[in-house]
Amino acid sequence: MTRAFAVVFLPPAFLWSLTHGFASQFVGLLPAGTGSCSRDLTEHYFDPTGSRDSVLYSSAADDDTIGADELPPPNTDTSILEEVDVAIIGAGLGGLCAGAILNTLYGKKVGIYESHYLAGGCAHAFDRKSQKCGETFTFDSGPTILLGCSSPPFNPLAQVLQAVDQPIDWIPYDAWGMIENPGREELLKWRLQLGPDIFEQGPLQEFGGPTALEEFQALRESTKGLLAGVAIPAMAMRAGSTALIPLLRYFSTLLEIIQQGELTTSTFAPFMDGPIFQVKDQWLRNWLDALAFSLSGLPASRTSAAAMAFVIYDMHRPGASLDYPKGGFGEVVNALVRGVEQGSLGSKVHLRQHVETIDCSEDGSKITGITLRNGRRVEAKDGVICNVPVWSLRSLIKDDKILSKLNNMLPDLAPQKPRQTWDLTSGKPVVKSVRPSVDPQSQESLLANCDMAEMTGSFLHLHIAIDSKGLNLEEMEAHYTVMDRSLAGDGSPSDGPCGELNMIAVSNPCVIDKSLAPEGYMIIHAYGAGNEPYALWEGMKRNSDEYKQLKEQRAEVLWRAIESVIPDVRKRTVEQLIGSPITHERFLRRPRGTYGAATEDYLKDGSTPFPNLVLAGDSIFPGIGMPA
C-alpha cells in the first residue's frame, strides 16, 4: 500500500485514464488524423557519462555528484534543432505513453525532451555496482506493485502497452504481508490475500468490531455505481469536441456514469462520513485510510471516490492479482521508449535535454515549439505536451504573451506559494484531514491553479542489496506493508495510518523474480510514500553533517521495517542508498519532493487556453499513479 500500490487501483476508464490528460486529448486537436558501502540514493540520478551501468561515484554526499539542476548554462545558439509534429517535455511515464500513442497509432513524429540521463521519471530503474562484493544490482526507483496488468480488467498502462504492441512479461501474485509494531512486543503479522470473501472472513472479522463486516458489505454496495466506467476502455477516452464519438458504442454505460453526477470526480468523504454512507467501525476506517493514503497521500475522506470504489471492488473480485514486471519496472519504461521510437518517423526520446522555455507565435495565438537550455530550438508543428509537475509550468514561460493567456488576461501577480498537506504548527507533522481554505479570487486562472495546488508530502527511500545465502525466499512475501506504530498509530488523534512515516512499503521482488539480482543476492526497497514532510529538510545543505545525520536518523524506520522480515539484514547488506525529499526535489525535479497534488486540486483535464498546448502528469485528473 504505497504509491506503487496506488498505481493499481485507478479505474481503467472511469477516471478518464492516462490518455485523457494528454495523448487522447491531444489527438483530438491534431489535423485528421554495518559493514556496507553506504551511499546516497542521489548518486545514481545523474551520471555524467550517460551510461546506466557506469559506476563513477566514490562519495556519500549529494553534493559530490552532478545534479539535474547543474546542467550546462544556456548558450546563444538559436538554430532549429529539429522539426517534429509534437514536442513532449519530460520522459516520465505520462510523456512516454503520450509519445508512444502518437507515434505508433497516429503516425506523428514525436520528440520527447528529458533532463535526466534515464527515461521513466519517478518510475525509472537504475543499476549500482557494489564495491563490497563487486556485483551489479538493478533497483526500482519508485513503484513496486501493480494490479490490472496480467488479466482483465486491464488498467490504462496495460492498455497502452497493448495498443503500441509492446508486451510485458507480468508475474502475478495474490497476497502481500502486513506487519504492525516491528521491533516491539506488540508485533503483529498477518497476510492480506486478494479474492472474494477472504478479507471479510479473515482480517476484517479478526480485527474489526461487531459491525465491521456488515459495514464493509454495505459500503461496497453503495459504491457500485462508481464502477460503471470499468466497462469503457481507457483508449476510448478523449477530450474536446470529439470526446463522445468513440464512446457511443458504450452508450448505456455512459448513462450509468452520468447518473452518478459529481460523485465521479469528488472525494470519498460522502461514503466515509455521510450523507451517502458512514463508516463507524474504527478498524475499518483505519484500513480504508491506509488504502487511500497509498493512492493519494491523503486520508480516505480526501481521496478520489472513484479510485476508492475501484480498490474496494478490485481487491476482492474473483481472479484478483497483483502484478510485477519480469526484469523490474525498468522493463515498462523500456517498452514505452520502444513504442515512441519504433517505425520510420524518426520519433525519439532525447535524454540530457533540458527544456528552458515553451515558445509561441509572434501574435501569441499558438504554441510553436520549445527551446532547450543549450539554446537550440525545436519546432513543433502540431503542438506541445508539457509533462512536468504543475508547479513547474511557470518556470517554462518566459514569453509575456503566453503568460498573459495562461493568466486569463489578468495582471500577473507574484506567484502564490502552494498550500501544503502537512501541518507542522503543533510541532508534530500532521496530515490535514480537511482541505486548506482557498480564496476563489486567487485561482481565477490556469497558472494560479497550478501555482497554488496543494502539495502532498514527500518520500524517504532505502535501497539495499544483501547476501541472501541461507535465507528461504519461499517463506517470504514479494511485498510487505509495515505499520511502524500499528495500523491505528500511536493512539493519538493526530496519528494513524496516515501518520508521519507510519506506513512503510517493503518491496522484496526477488521472491518472484530471481533475475533481478546475481545468484546468492537479493534487492530490497523500503520507502515511505507521501508521509515524509519536506519541511523537516527544508534549507539543509546537502553536503552538511546535519543532512547526513538526518538521513541516517530518518532511515531507521525503514531499516526497522526490513528487519521485521530479515532480522540480520544489516550484516548481510553489501550496498545501501538513502534517498531524502531533497533527493526527490533535486534529481526528479519534484518541487519540495512532493508525491503529487491533493485530490481536490487536480486539474480536471490537460487543456489550456492554447489549443495546441496540453498538460500531462500526476496533478491532472485522475492524479497520482503510473496508469494515471
From TrEMBL:
Name of the protein described by the UniProt record: Prolycopene isomerase, chloroplastic
Pfam families: Amino_oxidase
Signal peptide annotation: 1-21
Domain of life of the organism encoding this protein: Eukaryota
GO terms of molecular function: isomerase activity; oxidoreductase activity
InterPro entries registered for this protein in UniProt: Amino_oxidase (IPR002937), CrtISO-like (IPR045892), FAD/NAD-bd_sf (IPR036188)
Amine oxidase domain location: 93-622
Keyword line: Isomerase, Signal
Classification of source organism: Eukaryota, Sar, Stramenopiles, Ochrophyta, Bacillariophyta
GO biological process: carotenoid metabolic process
